[in-house]
Predict the 3D structure of the following.
Amino acid sequence: MTDPVRVAVIGSGPSGLYAADELSKHGGVTVDVLDRLLCPYGLLRYGVAPDHLKMKSLELTLRKVLERPEVRFLGGVELGDRLTVDDLREHYDAVVYATGSAVDRRLNIPGEDLHGSFSATEFVAWYCGHPDSEVDKFTLDAREAVVVGVGNVAVDVARILAKTAQELRVTDMPDHVLDVLDASTITDIHMVGRRGPAQAKFTTKELRELGELANADVVVDPAELVLDAAGEQVVESDKTVRRNLEALREWSQRTPEGRPRRLHVRFLHSPVGVLGNGRVEGVELERNELDGNGGVTGTGEQTTIPAQLLLRSVGYRGLPLSGVPFDERAGVIPHQQGRVHRDGATAPGEYVVGWIKRGPTGVIGTNKGDAKETVATLLSDLDELPRAPHRDPDALPSLLEQRGACVVTWAGWEAISAAEEALGVAAGRTRVKIADREALLTAAAEALRQQG
Ligand SMILES: Cc1cc2nc3c(=O)[nH]c(=O)nc-3n(C[C@H](O)[C@H](O)[C@H](O)COP(=O)(O)OP(=O)(O)OC[C@H]3O[C@@H](n4cnc5c(N)ncnc54)[C@H](O)[C@@H]3O)c2cc1C
Ligand SMILES: NC(=O)c1ccc[n+]([C@@H]2O[C@H](COP(=O)([O-])OP(=O)(O)OC[C@H]3O[C@@H](n4cnc5c(N)ncnc54)[C@H](OP(=O)(O)O)[C@@H]3O)[C@@H](O)[C@H]2O)c1
């Protein structure tokens, strides 16, 4: 084939970019990476905690993929809005869905929707300057906050609540976020797990940071660090769990040093209701007992944590894409080795990677091996791929513009990035994120204007 194979990757998060990396390294393939957002990098830009600067710097590695001549970024392009699967099949020989798991899971308990109760997803989107998040979504005028869940996202949001705005000025957080964090009245943060410490999902490096906070004492009740037979076994076999437990045990012996905030790490309590008249006033918990098999049973004994802010950090869920098969129960696109399962069979031409392929678990690196599998499947199909009728690379962007989309190219993104760096310089910071969609579009348009 002399004409390159044209592949569309839908989603510019880590999985989409790892897939683009693998594809573009194979000769004779060009890749368009489309994203509904104006900026690339998915959760690396809009999820990874801003104070995790080393992890954030992975953007520098991933941008090299988007800079390759075989790869093109098209931001502001949403599959399902002005763009259909049929359009994609007309313009590309293959499509890779890499749309992640964008929405939060619910607790399904009374009071969950009271004012002051939010998903961690909403809080993360707000502090990361996601353009879909309202600027004034959070006020942080609470005294006590409850974070439900003991995964790494719960650790992230608890840590951000515990830190001072001054500590977070090294990050790229938007100014309106730092202003609210600066005015925060929170004194106590309670991170609550329903099972025991041996079943917690957080990893040791992330957990340990909580014990090193300058502005908060970490508080652990030794009575909640119990293990049953299943827990003892996991501690024996799993280094992460063993190290987590070591950290938690050490903290349970600490005497609080009178720091302005306290971060309470709790176990063996399930949220059963959110109390309040119109807004959150407390979170009702039921005490659990370990069942010997890694699970828990409720004891019926209830306690209430007074709280004016609740953040539910109990995992994510994928969203169905219009015209794409979806497994409602698992919240993923069904597939075999990355080849999409449609109408009871798999056929060359549609593929899936990342969280929308395997569910919302795994660190960024996990998506690399995952993308390798999918791309290997795609490449093994190359000879059978039905060729798309429209082969002009400019045809789809033109069509999208005609339909009213504001397509942001790589040059547009570079202009946004430069505008954020300029804001940073002006504020004595490295970068200040632009959260407002219109402001992002203005920055992107300015660069294109300057290019003539
Ligand atoms: C809050 C949080 C913090 C995390 N922190 C870390 C960390 O510190 N370290 C670590 O290793 N891992 C971390 N992870 C995990 C990591 O972010 C994921 O493993 C990774 O982002 C998954 O990549 P993905 O490409 O599948 O999804 P995403 O990163 O979510 O990317 C999906 C992309 O698809 C786009 N998209 C969605 N729908 C459409 C559509 N219809 N049309 C066009 N585009 C669309 C989205 O805009 C997005 O850009 C974190 C996860 C979360 C939730
Ligand atoms: N720094 C990092 O590396 C980093 C940072 C953030 C995220 N990530 C990764 O991103 C992925 C997603 O993280 P996550 O924290 O959203 O998910 P997670 O690791 O799956 O943790 C979800 C937590 O919610 C709890 N939970 C679920 N339903 C509940 C309910 N009804 N009531 C009470 N608790 C409930 C779970 O408890 P059970 O175990 O009892 O179900 C678990 O503690 C993970 O793979 C994570 O490692 C990594």
User: Anything to note?
Assistant: The mean pLDDT is 96. Residues 410-426 form the longest helix (17 residues). Residues 10-16, 34-37, 42-43, 47-49, 52, 55, 78-80, 98-100, 102, 124, 153, 156, 316, 321, 354-355, 362-364, 367 surround flavin-adenine dinucleotide (ligand 1) (CB under 6 Å). The domain at 104-316 is CATH 3.50.50.60 (FAD/NAD(P)-binding domain).
